[in-house]
Amino acid sequence: MATERQTPSDVRRVSEFLQTFCVVMLAGGAQTLRVERNARRIGTAYGMAVELAMFSRHIMLTVSDGASGETCTAVRSLPAGGPNFTRVQALNALGWRMVNEHLPLEDAWREVEHILSLPSVPPLRLCLLVACANAAFCRLFDGDAVAMLLVFVATLIGFSVRQALSRVGMNPKIVYLCAAFCASLTASCGVVWQLGTTPQTALGVSVLFLIPGIPLINAVQDILDGHVLMGIVRAVQAGMLIAAIALGLSLTMLLVEGAGV
Fold first, then answer.
1. What whole-number distance in Å separates Cα of residue 97 and Cα of residue 108?
2. CA gap 79, 155 in Å, rounded
3. CA 100 to each of CA 19, 49, 157: distance values in angstroms, whole numbers, following the listed order
4. 7, pLDDT greater than 50
5. Please, are residues 131 and 159 in contact by the beta-carbon 8 Å criterion?
6. Euclidean distance between CA atoms 91 and 112, whole angstroms
7. Please, what's the largest Cα pairwise distance for the chain?
8. Residue 124: CB partners within 8 Å, gap ≥ 6?
């Protein structure tokens, strides 16, 4: 059952809703094709045609009603922030509900506002969880208990540095370089003082929590789905972050070598 044809004023309302919907999904780490399909699916449910162009920092959205001839084109900047799959999952589910249950746009707006108001993971809890995960990675690479402890402490310090520098709006490349340097420098204590039997493993694993896995996966998916430009942009951005991580780790290794270890 199709929703009845919208009035010209509703074209702008649908456009404003889709702008918010799409930028939140993209900023949250959603795959480009998923965002495009959701936007077109929602537009069709309201009797609209949707065309969407996505770039690294902006999206361009055109919503048109073929019956009335009304068209609305808008450009929207992507907000800063890290991946948030809770939001992505909730918005994806909302998109299907809008199609299957024919939700009024006002109800959909309230759902989006509720999703955006959901609290994120507290910084301290997130830091502890990331540290535990990275220590588990150390064990996967045959690190001993001492190496796991070193990685846990190094990750706590490195992730705290990343959070603090991100809050003040520092360039992400500098943030990753500083976080990698602080984490690897902490883990290098095991190499300097020969703590445990696998100190080199602790040093190498200490920066793994910074690897931008989500952008890399999305880059490959985007290229395979035909969104080559977006995929290349994401791959280049991820590559620059990896280079910053490598530079931070290299600085630590130079210091360790300079100490004659």
1. 9
2. 27
3. 21, 18, 47
4. no
5. yes
6. 7
7. 77
8. none
Q: How do residues 101-125 score in pLDDT, each as one tens digit?
A: 989 999 999 999 999 998 888 999 9
79 token code pair: 């907000």
Give all strands of the β-sheet with 71-77 in edge-to-edge order.
49-54, 58-64, 71-77
* pLDDT tens readout for residues 157-204: 999 999 999 999 899 999 999 999 999 999 999 999 999 999 999 999
Q: 80: which 2 tokens? A: 């800063």
Burial-class residue 249 by CB neighbours within 10 Å (0-12, 13-18, 19+): buried
Q: How many CB atoms lie within 10 A of CB 117?
A: 7
> What is the pairing mode between strands 58-64 and 49-54?
antiparallel
Q: In what helix (H) or strand (E) does residue 77 lie, and over which residues does it extend?
A: strand 71-77
Residue 261 pLDDT:
58
What's the predicted TM-score (pTM) here? 0.88
Q: Where does residue 250 rank: exposed (0-12), middle (13-18), buried (19+ CB within 10 A)?
A: middle
Structure tokens at 38: 């959701």
